[in-house]
Amino acid sequence: MIYLSGLSVALALALVPSCTEALKDGECEVCVGFLQRFHQTLQDNDVQFSSDSIEKALLKSCKEAKGKENRFCYYIGATSDAATKIINEVSKPMSYHVPVEKICEKLKKKDSQICELKYDKQVDLSSVDLKKLKVKDLKKILEEWGESCKGCVEKSDFIRKINELMPRYAPSAARARTDL
After folding, report:
1. Who wins on pLDDT, 100 or 176?
2. pLDDT tens track for 1-19
3. Hey, how many other C-beta atoms are within 10 angstroms of the C-beta on 48?
């Protein structure tokens, strides 16, 4: 009798929808995007899906990460200056081939900041009027390219530098701009 009541309680709990829902569209976009690309590189490089090898590869990928992805790596403890280490919350489930979305759901429960990260909007260099952008946005374009503008004081200096470097970093946008 006690066994039956315990079984019915377990069944009732299993049927009640839990308060943790799947990720909504656009939620945890940095986590999902970074981990999907990371998972794909693991498959492309034929890395053994063990927790240790995934952890080493994750640390290596995070050394090269920039911007929001670097911040994500900081949150999971994959950077040298991170205060916490929850890398195993990524490497262990990934070694069991758990979907990336589920890994990010678990990470969200551990640290909600992880899912608050959003990618910056990309500027369409082929059609945007650089003169209408703020200096902050012009600096961000140069930063994404890994360049800086030493000695730039005015907005026109930044625009000149971007136009000078555009054929190297965004050749299709540079061709489209010359066609205008």
Report:
1. 100
2. 555 454 454 444 444 444 4
3. 10
